[in-house]
Amino acid sequence: MTDMTDDMTDNIKLVVLDMAGTTVADGGLVEQAFAAAARRLDADPDSMLDYVRATMGESKISVFRHLFGEETRAQQANKAFEEAYAELVDGGRVEALPGAREAIEELTSQGRTVALTTGFARTTQDAILAALGWQDLVELTLCPADAGGRGRPYPDMVLTAFLRTAAADGVQQIAVVGDTSYDMLSGVRAGAGVVAGVLTGAHGAEALRAAGATHVLDSVAELPGVLA
């Protein structure tokens, strides 16, 4: 479903898509990996999951810094999370959301440049791309480290995609799409012309709108039609 129409949709040149929950089915894998990481550090995962759910979309190391405080312990937790998530990926637990690949291909055929972003580390992002056979699907993939280390809700990955691809003449020609409030905030702060939330992931329509979504879609499969 589309909440509103916008003349800017006709002029979008760069589409910045989130991965888990937006183009890649999450299926609770992030929470499972967080729980495994917490247990490896002898912490109680149940006491942390509310915060983890609320901050879906944020870079994972930032979440662990909040939860564990001390940097060494936060880095240990992040490493344990990445290892646990990689085990789930290796176990065949990751898959594309219905229509996601087709949507990306259609956006490309419309003459738009597509970038995929994530809050995961590069090694995890690459493992997901390999599991899906998406290594060559888009022009650019970014993780927080590729954009100076700050993930969402900062606009850094969106602006890095803007600079690296040179696909758009200005930020108003960017569409940012994700399933969390943090995705929406990063798009708003980057000045994107379209900031679209999808209802296939962590946060509902009310939270997405409150964070600045210009559109709310049932899934990313609707996006090419909205922008066409």
From TrEMBL:
InterPro entries: HAD-like_hydrolase_sf, HAD-like_sf, HAD_sf, PhnX-like. This is Phosphonatase-like hydrolase.
